[in-house]
């Protein structure tokens, strides 16, 4: 085991709000990082957001806000979620940050200088959702994208190409020399046969939109969002030569979903080979969660599980345990709320919670030092370590539960409550030591519970962060026993499900975490005015947008670009009085100047315009 560990999550697109799928990857990465920290390794956990590209530009336009503002708002939602889920990331990288762009540009220049990037022409089938080209063979009948189930577009453009074909052989050699480069093995084999099928040069620039990093010396072209995004893993460390990079890059582990293996296991290593930078140590691809059998999708609200709703009721550990235990890391899983509750009741409440509760109850305020090593603790510790080192958290938890059961069985067999005092104390010390070990071993997955177990045993909490060494209970005065995982009975289950079941039951807006509170001062900085729409026409370049002329009582019309085309016809808008954010910084949206924003209800799509219930003159202030 090397002394350092650098683990990354994918950087998430900001076109969509965070949901269970994103939380899954991030929680797994957090648990692995906590494990490696506990083992004393210097550890670095990176997550972040992927903010450029057509997809994000489209999402911003649909909301009628500039891309940068849209990204800023969405980033807060990701950061908030990681905070609520107690993710201990060491950094959060945004691709819109200068520190990132600098490294992307330097990488591009290097590849261009050595002739690995050249200008050519590209024609092909393009899926906006994937931000990628497909061959006809890869598409479903009717030219449908296999991921997004939407028609692809024919795109022809001048484009820069990365000479990926040149790196086919070196990449295959790397795969041969490093059998663990991609896990699980099935994914590795899939990728190796893809590479053997031949690598073509990759189109790495776009000229049909603007939201991204311009190609150095040719700003009409934007660097392909995947080239931009993948570089985050290096840019966040400051790039080659920077101290963090030197320290952590050679120990990189990329945790990703199986949907993005082609980018991580083919494109990225080829880019790195071309740049002469070392390749990551391992890429681990996990499976895909569905929700009650359905793909998580924007258009099916019931699939959009918001993890923070669950953790608000149960704490973080229950969800973490379920996600990590329920499916092996590479496999797919179906998320069913009832299964989460079932695991809570059986593994957490019955097995672990009971063990702690009974022991502390029987201790009667005193746990003596000592304890016999009769429960197989060291063997379990070795097994858990081996499985976590091998990225198999589900099996690691299964192995750990053997110690939980062994301790429970030991109590059942010894019946300490029937024993005379000295013998009872000895049995309870053994069990207490087992609990201490279980707390330390489960802490990466159940950090809060581990702390509580330590506190209930009466041990100092700062002892709860390390990997267990010797089997010797230090002796303690336990606190009052409190159930760690109160059993969820049928009534409570019904209550919880009613609260957790998302949108169509409760209304889509309810799933959105309320934004942080602001001062009145803050609010008063927003200049809201009554405005009369005098003209509405389609935006020439964007289907969902209108270009409006509004009278805000200023003696001259104002032009506002608004994402109302999905919800209103132009003729329905003219003559309407609406609410205008009059002092929003003007922005150019798809080539047209927009001088303000119109208030409307709806998150991604407009549901209804905010209206005045009586006629008011254009320009009247709203407060
Ligand atoms: N921006 C790219 C990644 C760039 S990395 C250099 C992207 N972003 S994404 O927002 O679409 O997130 C994809 C990742 O989110 C998946 O790879 C996976 O880690 C996670 N998941 C999203 N939905 C998921 C499920 N339904 N199930 C499991 N993980 C899921 O792709």
Task: Give a description of the structure.
With 623 residues, this protein is α+β, with helices and mostly antiparallel strands. The protein folds into 3 domains: 283 residues, Rossmann fold; 128 residues, Isoleucyl-tRNA Synthetase, Domain 1, CATH 1.10.730.10; 103 residues, OB fold (Dihydrolipoamide Acetyltransferase, E2P). Helices cover 40% and strands 19% of the residues. The chain has 20 helices and 26 strands. The protein has a 6-stranded parallel β-sheet with strand order 3-2-1-12-13-7, sandwiched between helices. Strands 17, 18, 19, 20, 23 and 26 form a 6-stranded antiparallel β-sheet that branches. A hairpin with a 6-residue loop joins strand 24 and strand 25. Helix 11 crosses helix 12. It is globular and about 95 Å long. The protein starts with a strand and ends with a strand. About 2% of the residues have low confidence. The site of 5'-O-[(L-methionyl)-sulphamoyl]adenosine (MSP) has 19 residues, from strand 1, helix 1, helix 7 and strand 12.
Which terms would index this structure?
Isoleucyl-tRNA Synthetase, Domain 1, Rossmann fold, binds 5'-O-[(L-methionyl)-sulphamoyl]adenosine, OB fold (Dihydrolipoamide Acetyltransferase, E2P), 3 domains, 26 strands, 20 helices, 623 residues, alpha+beta, 6-stranded parallel beta sheet
């Amino acid at each position: 085991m090397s002394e350092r560990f650098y683990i990354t999550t994918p950087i998430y697109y900001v076109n969509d709000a965070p949901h269970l799928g994103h939380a899954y990857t991030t929680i797994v990465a957090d648990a692995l990082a906590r494990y490696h920290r506990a083992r004393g390794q210097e550890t670095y956990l990176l997550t972040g957001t992927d903010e450029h590209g057509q997809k994000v530009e489209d999402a911003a336009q649909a909301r009628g806000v500039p891309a940068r503002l849209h990204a800023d708002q969405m980033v807060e939602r990701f950061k908030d979620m990681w905070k609520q889920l107690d993710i201990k990331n060491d950094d959060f990288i945004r691709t819109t940050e200068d520190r990132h762009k600098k490294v992307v540009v330097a990488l591009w220049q290097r590849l261009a200088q050595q002739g690995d990037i050249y200008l050519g022409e590209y024609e092909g089938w393009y899926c906006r959702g994937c931000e990628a080209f497909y061959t006809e063979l890869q598409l479903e009948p009717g030219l449908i994208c296999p991921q997004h189930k939407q028609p692809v577009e024919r795109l022809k453009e001048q484009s820069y190409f990365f000479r990926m074909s040149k790196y086919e052989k070196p990449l295959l050699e790397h795969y041969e020399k490093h059998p663990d480069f991609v896990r699980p093995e099935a994914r590795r084999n899939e990728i190796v046969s893809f590479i053997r099928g031949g690598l073509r040069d990759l189109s790495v620039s776009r000229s049909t939109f603007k939201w991204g990093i311009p190609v150095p010396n040719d700003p009409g072209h934007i660097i392909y969002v995947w080239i931009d995004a993948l570089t985050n893993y290096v840019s966040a460390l400051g790039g080659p030569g920077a101290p963090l990079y030197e320290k952590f890059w050679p120990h990189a582990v990329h945790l990703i979903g199986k949907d993005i293996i082609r980018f991580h296991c083919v494109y990225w290593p080829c880019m790195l080979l071309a740049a002469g930078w070392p390749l990551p140590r391992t890429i681990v691809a996990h499976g895909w969660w569905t929700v009650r059998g359905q793909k998580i999708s924007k258009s099916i609200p019931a699939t959009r599980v918001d993890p923070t709703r669950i953790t608000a009721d149960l704490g973080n550990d229950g969800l973490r345990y379920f996600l990590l235990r329920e499916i092996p890391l590479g496999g797919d899983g179906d998320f069913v709320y009832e299964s989460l509750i079932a695991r809570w009741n059986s593994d957490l409440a019955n097995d672990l919670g009971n063990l702690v509760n009974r022991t502390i109850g029987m201790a009667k305020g005193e746990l003596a030092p000592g304890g016999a090593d009769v429960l197989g603790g060291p063997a379990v510790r070795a097994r858990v370590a081996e499985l976590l080192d091998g990225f198999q958290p589900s099996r690691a938890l299964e192995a750990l539960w053997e110690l939980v059961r062994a301790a429970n069985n030991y109590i059942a067999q010894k019946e300490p409550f029937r024993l005379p005092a000295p013998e009872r104390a000895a049995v309870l010390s053994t069990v207490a030591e087992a609990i201490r070990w279980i707390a330390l071993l489960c802490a990466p997955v159940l950090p809060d519970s581990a702390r509580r177990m330590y506190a209930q045993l009466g041990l100092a909490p700062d002892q709860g962060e390390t990997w267990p060494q010797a089997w010797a209970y230090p002796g303690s005065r336990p606190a009052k026993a409190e159930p760690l995982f109160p059993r969820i009975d049928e009534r409570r289950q019904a209550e919880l499900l009613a609260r957790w079941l998302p949108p169509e039951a409760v209304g889509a807006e309810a799933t959105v975490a309320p934004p942080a509170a602001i001062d009145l001062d803050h609010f008063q900085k927003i200049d809201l005015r009554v405005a009369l729409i005098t003209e509405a026409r389609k935006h020439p370049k964007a289907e969902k947008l209108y270009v409006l002329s509004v009278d805000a009582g200023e003696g001259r019309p104002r032009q506002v670009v608004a994402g109302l085309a999905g919800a209103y016809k132009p003729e329905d808008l003219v003559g309407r009085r609406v609410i205008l954010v009059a002092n929003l910084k003007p922005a150019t949206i798809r080539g047209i100047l927009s001088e303000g924003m119109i208030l409307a209800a709806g998150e991604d799509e407009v549901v209804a315009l905010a209206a005045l219930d009586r006629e008011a003159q254009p320009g009247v202030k709203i407060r």
